Amino acid sequence: MAENVLLGIDIGTSSCKVGAFSVEGEALGTATRPYEILRSTAYEAEQDAEEWWHAACLCIQKLLSANVFDAQDVAAIGVVGHSWATLPVDDEGTPLRNAMLWLDRRSLEECRYLEEVVGEQYILELSGNRIDPAYCVPKMLWIRNNEPEVYAQTYKFLQSNSFIVHKLTGVFTQDASQGYGYYVFDTERRGWSWEACELMGIDGQLLPKVFESVTVVGEVTSQAAAMTGLKAGTPVVAGGVDCAGACLGAGLIEHGATQEQAGQAGGMTIVTQRPYKDSRLISGCHVIDQYWHLSGGTVSGGVLNWFYGNILAQNGDISSLGDEKHNPFELLSLEAETSPVGADGLLFLPYMAGERTPIWDPLARGVLLGLSYEKNRGDLVRALMEGAALALRHNLEVAGQVGIKPSSLISVGGGAKSKVWCQIKADITQLPLGIPSLDDGTVFGAALLGGIGVDVYADWQASLQEIVGVRQWYKPREANTSLYDELYQIYLASYAALKDQLHRLAQLG
After folding, report:
1. What is the 3-state secondary structure (H, E, C) of 409-463?
2. Is this prediction's pTM over 0.90?
3. Interhelix angle for 441-453 vs 242-249, to 10°?
4. String of b and e for 406-444 (b: at least 16 CB within 10 Å)?
5. Cα gap 475→86, rounded to integer Å
6. Residues 82-105: what's their mean pLDDT?
């Protein structure tokens, strides 16, 4: 049979998605399986890595049982995943504890240690990133300090996609695009710095060999084939970080091209021809080896999930938010559309789990300002959407100060399905926002990495231009510019004024 199918696996923060695509870019089918974020305190956020693998297996089996593709036809497999997951495994790849996620903030003491012993300037110049509990090295040090028996048994530290690659192939890998999670990674040279390992007290033997994202690192083992239904011997590439994979899947491979992340983790990713290093943003390697990226990562992407799951559903107030034709999130968007621009004077600070870029404040918390008796659910939903868009604008303005000013945005993720939210983002950022022709850009990006790795394309850049376009543009509406400019200034001033009180509240909680 012809090997004309590419399989992509996306290990997201809230779910796994697997997609099958023809080499011409036709979406043959996708399957999704959710899993939990485990929280014991506000500072902790973990996941059972075996749940990632279980979800991936079930998704692949579902697609195979539905005859979406034939396992014999798969040319290659690519895996992308959420960033900064820190997972210690033994020499057989078995997790020794739950993975500590990017949302996990408990390694504050380890961050202070790094500031004293190494200094933030050294880390910024090497890795392109600041000291913060979100990153991998503070988590590694936290495990060493608080769970020494786990650290002593650790053979390698893996991240979300590299764990799945190991489950598929039995090979321990680290891709260059996920390297930015480690302070001992030289972003310019795209490899480990053994000097930095020694300075930070990190055993370099615990770090897997670095590969570029399109490198074939192994083949599906007979054991993985039995668990998934895939054909043993199918090539698997190293894969990469989801935000860069989404850029590839949306056709963003040129300097200045910018993806807006409309998933659980909000923010933006700007493709660059060299590393840009600023402590307010995130610097890393693209999944394409001649490029890098400058990113802003926020926690605001999941605000509608939180509102529906923790407020409406738990109180039984869902009868008006679901029918046979619409899901609850579509109807929430319709409610937001009934609220005026500016949500009738309601402002939301979207710091629901602290915040990453550009304020880097683990003790920041979400705030609603302007509540009054006449406010309704539509106003509240619109305020949540506008708050996420204001966080996006904040990151874009900082990127402009660094030297990168995008001329447009391409939205990738579940939030891109909301017309009202897309228009809000275009209005608030004052940039045209496009929706790519492929709905599953991130998982397609993962699949495309596999195709590039096994050379199914004579010219993959030209093929990508043919496959991916923009099916709809949302243009900024000038009539809303002045109001949103004022709202943005209130947004910045509100955090500055409330910062100390938010910290006090976080400590009480």
Report:
1. EEEECHHHHCHHHHHHHHHHHCCCEEEECCCCHHHHHHHHHHHHHCCCCCCHHHH
2. yes
3. 80
4. bebbbbbbbbbbbebbbbbbbbbbebbbbbbebbbbbbb
5. 40
6. 96
